[in-house]
Specification:
Elements lengths: L1 E3 L7 H16 L1 E2 L2 E2 H11 L1 H4 L4 H21 L91 H9 L16 H6 L9 H9 L13 H19 L39 H4 L1 E3 L4 E2 L4 E2 L3 E4 L8 E5 L7 E5 L7 E2 L8 E5 L5 E5 L4 E4 L8 E5 L10 E5 L5 E2 L15
Parallel strand pairs: 1-4
Antiparallel strand pairs: 2-3, 5-14, 6-11, 7-8, 8-9, 9-10, 11-12, 12-13, 14-15, 15-16
The structure holds copper (II) ion (2 copies).
The site of one copper (II) ion (CU) has 3 residues, from helix 7.
Amino acid sequence: MALRKNQRNLTDWEKTQFTDAVLKLKAEKTGTTNTYDKYVQWHIDYTDATHAGPAFFAWHREFLRRFEIELQRIMKDDTLGLPYWDWSVDQAPPSWPFTKEFLGGNGTSDARFPGKVVDGPFAFDDPNNWTLHVFDPDDPDPYARYPYLRRQFGPGPGNPKSSLPTPANVQATFKATPYDVDPWNENSASGFRNMAEGNIPEPRPQMHNRIHHWVGGSMVPPTSPNDPVFWLHHCYVDKLWADWQRLHKDDVGYQPYVPEKDARTGHNLTDRMAPWHQKRPLDVLNTWDLGYHYDNDNYLMPNDVLYPGQSIATPIVNGRRFSLTYSSSDGNNLVLGSNQVAWALWLSTNQALPDGWCVMQTDGNLVIYDWSNKPLWPSNTNYGYWIYLTVEDATEKRSGHLQMYRWDDQTPIDWSVPPPKVGNSAKG
Ligand code: CU
Ligand code: CU
């Protein structure tokens, strides 16, 4: 199971692991191309069947998951998850991804190389020589076939807007139902899909579409995966869908995908999604089944790792959100917290520990290690089978508690360190 984390909370090591993996896929030859460019080519080849319609979310979910599996394969780490960029919040340095240390910054204003990205791991020049090979043959932009990555933040051709979407825009999108409406394209007057994709309300572009135009340069044409920020952008877009599905779930567990028929080919519930003909939108409705989850889910799965500052959390139910954070500011404890109180509901220990990391091991034990891999604190639940941990949300009987379960049969597991009662402010 891959844990997809907010890029603002990634450690320097995690950021480097992601960019190294991307560079390796670019360097890996396959046929006449390379693994990375194969994805860019897929994106332009199937643009019509995958945008401006209901399958927009489904096709990109499968596209991202396949790319994530490539990253895991090349790094020999099947817990590696795509990071997501919450562009409604992280709109400036240092929390946005456009830093020299992560994805590199805006393009240059040098008139000889307009928009050329000159820093970070994806600059055209040494040491990595990130080079574009896949172009849109119909692009009228004279710079569109230049082999270097380009970014031109802010307003530009096709985008009069100088700002990125806001949290209020995201909340309004979450309220939109149903999933999609007739005519199932960019002219659909309501529905979550067309609103989140960014065609409504006027003026365009909104939400997803606006980010492509705001970043500008290589992110505008259908070859947009040429810019690695594509993956962080679309990971957040996928998370929007996952969150929306959870907010509007029905008795089968999710808000149904529509339509079953009547949309153009490729966009109906059981249409095959090119080029992966065995996959249909029906097959990608649940991220758990696909092998990943987001850090705003209330689960810590076997192999999931939290580094300092990272957390899992429940949805907000009846105004309450509970979260479990591996905190570096408070003696490296696991901290159970709530959005309604300032104090910790529970701490794993009250000792100040050295810096480290926390993992839900496959032997069942939840363990904090220091950087030399010396165990600092265990849950003592190493019973030899997979266990997952949940933070129970406000609808559940043990609201706000931590609870472990056996992976295979959902049996509740008792901790040697019992999880706390809500409202207990005792430290330890
Ligand atoms: Cu796309
Ligand atoms: Cu896109």
